[in-house]
Amino acid sequence: MMYNELVEDCFFFPKHVGVLDSSEPRTVYYSNASFSKNAVISLYMQCTGDKRIKVICFKSNGNPYLIAALEWLCRQVNGKKLAQWCFNGDELIKLLDVPFNHAPVIWQVQDAYQEILMLMNKKIEGES
Question: Strand, helix or coil at 17?
């Protein structure tokens, strides 16, 4: 299968693969799985006191589109404020040139990102 340059760059040269200790301050973890697509996502995020994403990383197994989408997401949001960037799955499908049969993994990434944002906001509110 042929992939576009962005998919190849994000898949073959990821910079955000890893895990964080969720017991650390302002650090959260979210995991989801799509058994129909054999895709598991573990997403980790750590923020500063002013709600800026200090570190975001992932661990996953799945097809190259899933890995590329996660890496692309991390590249987009790292260093930004929690509410500064909005995930758009339709745009990402076009950007990565994702075939129709692989599109569900993009929605899986979108769901994971929305969930981890919610978890982080709850954690920060709980510290106040």
Answer: strand
